[in-house]
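Troubleshooting entry. The earlier prediction with HC5 gave an output that would not parse, so I re-checked the input for stray whitespace and re-submitted. Clean input:
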Amino acid sequence: MLSVVTRHFMRQSANISPIMKAAEKTAAMLGRRQAQPGRMFAQQNSLANLPVPPLQQTLYKYLLALKPILSTEDYEATQAIVSEFGKPGGYGEKLQMGLILRSQKMENWLSDWWLDKAYLEFRSPVVMHVSPGVVFPRENYRGVEGQLDFASRLIAGVVDFKQLIDSNSLPVDYMSGQPLCMDQYYKILSSCRVPGVKKDSVVLYPPNKPDAPRHIIVAYNNHLFSLDVYDSNRKPLPLTELHSQLKRIVAESPFPAIPLNILTSEHRNVWGKIYKKMSKDKINRASFEEIKRSIFMVCLDKPVYSEETDHIENFAHHCAKQALYGGGSTANSCNRWFDKTLQFIVGADGDIGLQYEHCTAEGPPITALIDHSLHYAHNTPLDSRQTLSIERSAPKRLEFNLDRATLEVIDDAKCNIDSLGNDVQICCFSFEPFGKDLPKSQRISPDAFIQLAIQLAFFKIYGHSTATYESASLRKYKFGRTDTIRSATIESDSFVRIMMDQTKKPSEKAHQMRKAIQAHRENTNAAINGDAIDRHLLGLKLVAIEQGTNVPDIFMDTSYQTSVHFRLSTSQVPAKHDVTMLFGPVVPDGYGICYNPQEDHINFGVTAFNTARETDSQKFGQKLAESLLDMQYVLSKVPPQAKL
Ligand code: COA
Ligand code: HC5
């Protein structure tokens, strides 16, 4: 089945006529609002603070969300616990008051907590567990010459995007007609996660300071080089210059370096301890500083894909591995610095992509940067920026002093990344029969349609619904990050059951599909308007912890654990270019599902762990494609209805 809908990733990006210098024109070509100097934060002051939802509303919705995923017995037990928590003058009201007080003192009561709880205090490796990978459309070059040519174009494209950020010229993003917080754009470049023994931190080097970074890090053969991308007058280096500097880096590094970099893929406590110890040495400290301060990173990967030995169908899979974790210690995992916010991956076979450390930003600002940079890379002739730069320095190799103990941990880290890589089962595919166009033609939200297909696919395999997470943007609010759309609803559960019932007519199935889609849309609207339940419940729990009181029963209840055991962790990240994105599951027996809906097809990245016998991402991908077609069939049997 999958072979029918799978297509290799040779599709080229949108065929857009060459446009050169003006960044505003690029933005316009990409369908974004016109760039205007100083306009990036035009709406920022009008953004509201994140509200605290009413307690009773959240408790009511929490019970609704539990219904399709719990047994009747468990549900009834939890009902009693929830009602005790929410009774007048009870524990819930006390915590709610604490949360309201916090929200009155802060622009966003959630964002600091979220940064800590979701990211900086999380101790598992960022690879696979936190950092997503993005696979770009395959480029036409093969070999190192083309690799360096493309890498220089991509670097120039990112620097061009940076100019838009630095001059506050990026057009404001909008969602459902509402302006969004633009703060995350300031955090994706010149930023880095720093390992700590118990908790990580994140550093950011603003562009408007006199000593603002001018360099990027280039990884080649496990060596790290600091390369200036601006001259001493802060003018971006011409493409030809970037190209010759990259050539120099390659020529100077014929043999692989000791793969210290792989330590960034370790458990955070392990890496935090080594980092602390290594930082006592002046040379190490200076090199760490150079990496942290760099604007972004480019990984010039060695070729590991062979057209002769591998079937062409495997190319997408190869790219996904490189983007998600580097493919393992003998492939390119040692040619990364996983703490760095943005690592562009440029392989030798037209295989390109991105690895990104998630703590500073969500996917949409990253895809805006990708869309701009790829467009620039494809449309800028080599000689277009020939203005001669002055006083540029040669690329500088970063040095490290390593002791015997660290060398041993490097060996362990290589084994660990290989185990992690062998454990992940990746299924990236493009669903070809239709894209957003089909649900739109039926006046249905494409996102709700795809989410429902995910529910159906899960039900086909397991015969029940499960806790499902879909990312919803809170950027409508100042410094907003995300909340959760819980896609398993009472309505979706009825829908998947009816779909599997041979006795039901298409009209009955279509009727329930529309009810489930409507429920999903309502949940989506609630989430983006600050009325979802998950971050509110987290907030109440954290108030209890901060107040030093007992964590209330509602959070100790096994049903709560079930409700946050997201076997389906999903996210829509739309991009103009035909990219495929993927991230790891968030629970051992779960799936990570990321999708980029295009007008006439949908790119999916599905992951699962091999160690969980009950999951299989290939099978899930097949069932997902099948479910989308089943839903298309049902819709084809009924006349279009009112818009949902
Ligand atoms: N009839 C016809 N067309 C419809 C429709 C309907 N009933 N409902 C929606 N559409 C159209 C929209 O106008 C839109 O058109 P476009 O392709 O021209 O832009 C398109 O279909 C997509 O809409 P939809 O599928 O409903 O999704 P959405 O854009 O509303 O997105 C979320 C839903 C939840 C993904 C979004 O609100 C969100 O929060 N995005 C951010 C997620 C995120 O941050 N992810 C990354 C986390 S790191
Ligand atoms: C380049 C695509 C990145 C998508 C990453 C994403 O969706 O991250 C989610 C962030 C959030 O807060 O919801 C987390 N998730 C991967 C667990 C869904």
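This one parsed fine. The chain has two domains: 51-106+433-636, 130-425.
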